């Protein structure tokens, strides 16, 4: 038996190490997704028997104005969140400089990363308070009155996304800091010999070595924008009048508060389909990049 193990350990060892993760993935992710899709084809309050209605929930979803408001807000989240990777890279380049006091500045940028999303939401709720918040103090310094952004259906989503961008930018900064610490000194030295400085050094030498980090940063940012829930829940509960709701929060609201688990599962299935499209595109881009690099 020992001889057999020694002979086959080149594939047995990684298989045994990966097996628990694969088991969890199939149990928690795949089976849950299939179960959610099955529930979406029923009318179910979460307690009684499920009643088969086919695509009835999806037809209702297609005619639901709130669904399109939530979908539009998710697109706003997605577009605004795309600022996180470049801003994270810019901050990483700044704090990576060997300047006195930069370590202290770097530690300050790590603060939002260690805070819970709920804490960030509460802090920014105070910031946006029109009576005594930081935004009110800034407006008062210029002799103006701060708008109640969390009560304005036109600005509330943008205000929440700005709050959520704070920790997301920090996360991207950490990714890029790790990438900057693994840059090839030989390539940088060769670039300096060839006269590369400033923007040319960044564009032609540094950024090509950060391609994989950029892929990860964009993937995490897109997924974070699509599954946004906690900030909306803490800051507005989807209000005012559902104007700040996103798909994840609408799913939660329909399932938990309205006892419409079938309808909530239909929303979850649509959100899963959107994420699946992005994941397929993301993996195809990674494979294409690696094949071209190879």
Automatic annotation (TrEMBL):
Cellular location(s): Cell membrane
Domain ABC transmembrane type-1: 70-284
Keyword Transport: yes
Record-level GO BP terms: transmembrane transport
An example Gene Ontology CC term for this record: plasma membrane
Domain of life: Bacteria
InterPro entries listed in its UniProt record: ABC_transporter_permease, MetI-like, MetI-like_sf
Keywords linked to the UniProt accession: Cell membrane, Membrane, Transmembrane, Transmembrane helix, Transport
Main location: membrane
Topology within the bilayer: Multi-pass membrane protein
TM annotation in the entry: 12-34, 75-95, 107-128, 155-180, 201-226, 261-283
Pfam families in the record: BPD_transp_1
Family of the protein in this entry: Belongs to the binding-protein-dependent transport system permease family.
Record-given protein name: Transmembrane component of ABC transporter
């Amino acid at each position: 038996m020992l001889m057999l193990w020694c002979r086959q350990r080149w594939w047995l060892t990684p298989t045994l190490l990966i097996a628990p993760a694969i088991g969890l993935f199939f149990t928690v992710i795949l089976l849950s997704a299939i179960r959610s899709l099955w529930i979406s084809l029923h009318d179910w309050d979460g307690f009684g028997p499920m009643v088969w209605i086919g695509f009835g929930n999806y037809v209702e979803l297609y005619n639901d104005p709130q669904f399109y408001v939530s979908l539009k807000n998710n697109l706003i989240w997605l577009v605004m969140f795309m600022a996180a990777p470049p801003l994270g890279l810019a901050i990483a380049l700044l704090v990576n400089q060997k300047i006195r006091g930069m370590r202290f500045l770097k530690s300050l940028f790590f603060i939002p990363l260690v805070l819970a999303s709920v804490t960030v939401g509460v802090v920014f709720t105070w910031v946006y308070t029109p009576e005594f918040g930081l935004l009110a103090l800034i407006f008062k310094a210029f002799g103006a009155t701060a708008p109640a952004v969390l009560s304005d259906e036109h600005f509330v989503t943008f205000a929440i996304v700005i709050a959520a961008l704070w920790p997301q930018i920090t996360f991207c900064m950490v990714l890029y800091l790790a990438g900057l610490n693994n840059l090839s000194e030989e390539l940088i030295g060769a670039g300096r010999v060839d006269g590369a400085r400033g923007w040319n050094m960044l564009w032609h030498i540094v950024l090509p070595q950060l391609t994989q980090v950029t892929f990860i940063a964009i993937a995490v940012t897109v997924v974070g924008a699509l599954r946004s829930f906690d900030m909306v829940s803490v800051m507005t509960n989807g209000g005012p009048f559902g104007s700040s709701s996103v798909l994840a929060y609408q799913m939660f609201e329909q399932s938990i508060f309205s006892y419409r688990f079938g309808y909530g599962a239909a929303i979850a299935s649509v959100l899963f389909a959107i994420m699946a499209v992005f994941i397929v595109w993301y993996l195809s881009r990674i494979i294409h990049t690696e094949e071209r690099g190879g």
